[in-house]
Amino acid sequence: MEPTAAKAPLDLLPEKVNELLGFLGTQNVNGKPYAATDFVLTNYIFFLFISIVLLSIVIFIAVRKLEMVPKNKLSNAVEALAEFVRNDIAVAMIGHDGAKYFPFLATMFFFILMNNLLGLIPGCKPGTGTMGVTVALSTTVFIFFNAVGFKNQGLWGYIKSFSPKGVPFPINLIVWAIEVFSAILRIFTLAVRLFANMYAGHIILGIFAILTALFTEPLIVAIETHQGIGAAFVGALPSIGWLLLMTALYALEFLVAFVQAYVFTILSAVYIGAAAHEH
Amino acid sequence: MNFIGFGLLYGLAVTAPALTIGIVGGKAAESTARQPEMAGRIFTVFILAAAFVEALALLGFVLGIMVVGKL
């Protein structure tokens, strides 16, 4: 065996994974160490801007030439998604006046979807893979559904609507406090769900990519030095399995990108629907 | 020690969500079989419930990595 390959591939895994975790953390674009109080462009925000530009281009191309029966494939795809957001999310969850909130929900859906999909390209980051962005998104949703509630039910009506009708007096107040607390907690749950899905998905993809590379490395070294190719070839066989697993997980992450955009939008629609109507 | 702690954290964090995802998925399949015309609505409810549950499992995973700081 080669002296360079003396360490088993699996022994190298922890330090490589630590490298990956450092890579997934927030970094400055200018290469200086990142501090949370600095007002600088970080890697996540950089890819956030790229995804905004890409989304603008995609939507612009899709709606440039509107037809009754679109022949453009991109137009068809965007139209199908927009129709899905309007019919299956806005109207299905909010009710007959759900189409009124369609612009807000569609913006959220396409923005999150574009960020998630961009993050799947190797080397790119999902803008939604950092807590700062997801908390900003969920705070926007929080302010929006509260504004809708105050507008539709009036100040006192909306405050009162948190406690269910028909509950006797003292328990009434306790239920109201719990409901208000859980409504405020929605900022946190929405943000963490999206962030954790993106972050965990990328860590898992990264770990399988590292495993594939670690098991293949001794073979490359053996071919370069023309020594012990047979043994190294047998040692590299597991990387086929790791590669297949990684491909399967990649497909799963592609699904997750859609499902998380869908879940974020549908939960926003549920909250807006609960605030918009009196129960 | 970190490895053992992380393994325990992830294992414990994922048990209840695993059971719940099984219940949710099984009930969704059962209700789709009973009433195939409602498949669309049932799938929506299934995805919603699964997302709620899945977040708990992922929270354990991410929390572990963040607390340990490294693997």
Notes on the structure:
The complex is a heterodimer of chains A (279) and B (71). By secondary structure, chain A is an all-alpha fold. Chain A has one domain (9-276). Helices cover 74% and strands 0% of the residues of chain A. Chain A has helices spanning 13-24, 43-63, 73-94, 102-119, 131-153, 155-160, 169-225, 229-236, 238-276. In chain A, helix 3 crosses helix 9 (238-276). Chain A is elongated, with a radius of gyration of 25 Å. With 71 residues, chain B is mainly alpha-helical. Chain B has one domain (2-68): F1F0 ATP synthase subunit C (F1FO ATP Synthase, Up-down Bundle). Helix content of chain B is 89%, strand content 0%. Chain B contains two helices and no strands. The N and C termini of chain B lie close together (11 Å). In chain B, 10% of the residues are buried. The interface between A and B is medium-sized, with 21 and 14 residues.
Low-confidence stretches of chain A are: 1-5
Helix content of chain A: over 70%
CATH superfamily of chain B: F1F0 ATP synthase subunit C
Q: Give average pLDDT of chain A, whole number.
A: 86
The computed structural class of chain A is: mainly alpha
Low-pLDDT ranges of chain B: none
- Largest interface here, residues on each chain? A-B, 21 and 14 residues
Helix percentage of chain B: over 70%
Portion in beta strands of chain A: under 5%
Largest sheet of chain B: none
Number of helices of chain B: 2
Report strand % of chain B: under 5%
* Element-level helix/strand string of chain B: HH
Distance between the termini of chain B: 11 Å
The CATH architecture term of chain B is Up-down Bundle
How many whole angstroms does the radius of gyration of chain A measure? 25 Å
What pattern of helices and strands is seen along the backbone of chain A?
Answer: HHHHHHHHH
Number of domains of chain A: 1
Question: CATH topology of chain B, what is it called?
Answer: F1FO ATP Synthase
